[in-house]
Amino acid sequence: MSKLKQLKSELNKLANKKQALILAGFFKAGPGEYGAGDVFLGIKVPVQRSVAKKYLDLSLPEIGKLLNSKIHEHRLIALLILLKRYGQAGESNKKKFVDFYLQNTKNINNWDLVDLSGHYILGDYLLDRPRQILYQLAKSKNLWERRIAIISTFAFIRQNEFSDTLKIAEILLRDEHDLIHKAVGWMLREVGKRDQAVLEKFLRRRRKIMPRVMLRYAIEKFGQQKRQAYLKN
């Protein structure tokens, strides 16, 4: 039995139908919802992480097959393996994992998949490189590519670099999707945790036009009085 078949067989044995129904509801997998068509085995993330550790030697084509699966846990484990492989790669080899990631964004198609991978792979790679790809993704028609764009900037925020986060937040300010509102608000909050003055300068000219959810997320760490002042508008 190939390693890939062995992995899938192990996951099938861990499947839990009751948990699968809960996850399908949580990740909005119903008709017309953002996760429509996603299939769940019902395996919790810590268990998936343990399984992934056993299969870190899968080839990129095999990881690609996992990422092309309709089963959510297959795609999540593929990304967990990719994360580890990227982290272990030397500088000269990281590009192939980033290229692979960008070639498969259509399969990184739920918020948890984006959030566990974007800043650790793409964001990390771009720390000392041109970042134009993020601006292309921010203008994509694909919801998940837009989320990848803003979440990837978390890597920069952690280095106290805020410029790209603020510029991409500006691009996404009028985005129609709630998941983008939340992601942008989250990244703005992270900026504010490191430099509240920078965040407030950004908010002063934009708080009246930004989605309410985005604003609420952004100011979550403010004191109650200041938070209420922002929300009055």
From TrEMBL:
<dbReference type="InterPro" id="IPR016024">
    <property type="entry name" value="ARM-type_fold"/>
</dbReference>
<dbReference type="Pfam" id="PF08713">
    <property type="entry name" value="DNA_alkylation"/>
</dbReference>
<protein>
    <submittedName>
        <fullName>DNA alkylation repair protein</fullName>
    </submittedName>
</protein>
<dbReference type="InterPro" id="IPR014825">
    <property type="entry name" value="DNA_alkylation"/>
</dbReference>
